[in-house]
Amino acid sequence: MWIRLRAWLTGLFPQYRQDVLLLVIDLIGTFVFAVEGALAGINAGLDVFGLMVLAFVTALGGGTIRDLLIGAVPPNSIRDWRYGATAFAGGGAVFCFHGLIQDVPAHLLITLDAAGLALFAVAGADKALEFGITPLLAVMMGVVTGAGGGTVRDVLLAKVPAVLNSDVYAAAALVGAVVMLGALRVKMPRGLAMSLGAAACFVVRMLAVWQHWNLPKVMR
Amino acid sequence: MWIRLRAWLTGLFPQYRQDVLLLVIDLIGTFVFAVEGALAGINAGLDVFGLMVLAFVTALGGGTIRDLLIGAVPPNSIRDWRYGATAFAGGGAVFCFHGLIQDVPAHLLITLDAAGLALFAVAGADKALEFGITPLLAVMMGVVTGAGGGTVRDVLLAKVPAVLNSDVYAAAALVGAVVMLGALRVKMPRGLAMSLGAAACFVVRMLAVWQHWNLPKVMR
Amino acid sequence: MWIRLRAWLTGLFPQYRQDVLLLVIDLIGTFVFAVEGALAGINAGLDVFGLMVLAFVTALGGGTIRDLLIGAVPPNSIRDWRYGATAFAGGGAVFCFHGLIQDVPAHLLITLDAAGLALFAVAGADKALEFGITPLLAVMMGVVTGAGGGTVRDVLLAKVPAVLNSDVYAAAALVGAVVMLGALRVKMPRGLAMSLGAAACFVVRMLAVWQHWNLPKVMR
Lengths: 220, 220, 220
Description:
Chains A, B, C: It comes from Edaphobacter acidisoli. Chains A, B, C: This is Membrane protein. Chain A is an all-alpha fold and about 220 residues long. Chain A has one domain. Chain A has eleven helices and no strands. In chain A, helix 2 crosses helix 5. The first copy, chain A, is globular.
């Protein structure tokens, strides 16, 4: 069944078109994360340089940490100028059109962020597998890719990273990566497994925002 | 003399048994550090995800930084699932049996922690030497292995790392690594040098706790 | 024209003398940064170990991050004991002669720091180019080399890094790296391009301190 599906999908999306599609989605995710990082920089009263740093770090920090850990050196963010340029474009857009971006409805930003998280988590786990990382840790690399950038951003702002004690964010990335690995385990084609994982992450994240889910805590 | 001692020890502990012994001790150290990290997470009011992150980072952060710096990529913590699994088991144990762990007497935890520190410091310096790092910096890698995890944990909790201004902790790791390197310099067999170094670190740490030693500060 | 200039400079400074000169300048920069790091440690009330850590991290953190990112592993700071020894000497000097160092006039420290920043920025961008990093990101690596150590120091002190929201510091490093890359683009010899870049960074930094320049911020 997967083979027939793969044949159909391959007809629809030949390899080069898939690659372009993945790159475009990846750059969109990078842009959205950069915008969020830059907004956090403005809220912390940083200057334009600090804003650019937060844009870069939020957008590309997770993937960079993943690449360092799995041994993909230099990391993508340093090897390919398009990622850095996109992150700086996001930061620059916030700096120049700050008023307009404040008018973007919050739920649109949250939705785009969830989409970016889903893509990063799945792409991160996939890349870790490619580098021969064992599944348990490949899942972790997916989470790091999705949530690592925001973590570094919060560390730079001298705050406890929001992912450590707020609503279901990194956990959604975890679900997405686990679903993808499960799908690969039952021999689904890679593209379908990644799509399923991303969809799972996106749905969990949106449900969590909508229903105000929180992870359990130990009572002190 | 060392040669005769080595022959005797080799009879007692053949290579494969030594390796198993080292792995078991290493995993016990990982578990203890993970428990401490998770307890710090609970005290900071983190949710179960944050608790797991702190468990992993506290237990394996030091070794991971060492491996990145000496070029042992991917780091042990990412290459070998047993370390990650042990760290998550430590975090999970704290989450599930929090009440019980609070009943563990503090001095038992401190003793176990000192044992973990001793082992990590010595193993870290040894691994750095193996990768051709010069002795001065191999000692530093021992300290990073022992105290790095707690440092990253404190950074994530937005606190000044305790090792930078509290009692003799990293300094004990330093003593252990220096003793080990000195023992190797006088041609002691590796296992004996490591044992001596670990014992020195453990004794210094326990004496420091018992006698409330503190490192000197410059008066402002 | 560059060729004639290069011939003249090569007569004046043969290669081996250039290398020694570069190393000496590099070690002086390392020492100055280490002194600043150690002073920050004293101001934060750290003990002698914390002071040494801050000295090392401030002096060598930026170059270490750059080396990890561009794939120069193990980083220079771990491979060559002279850097670590110089950093620890800087920290030790602060610990032993704290009173004397407080008598060093502030503008001398600022001038030396600007010189160190200029050198680190230019050397960092140059090394990134050597490792095949694209110019946009080589510039960024120059900034990381110059300003990264101070950033890690501030993170360890649980403060928002000063470079993110204070006066023109990292921006001066950026200018220096850009000038150097521009000079290389018009085929200037490497030594001249590096000197020009370093001079540009130094001048911008000193002007910024003298004129109290600040980067623009977005008004909230």
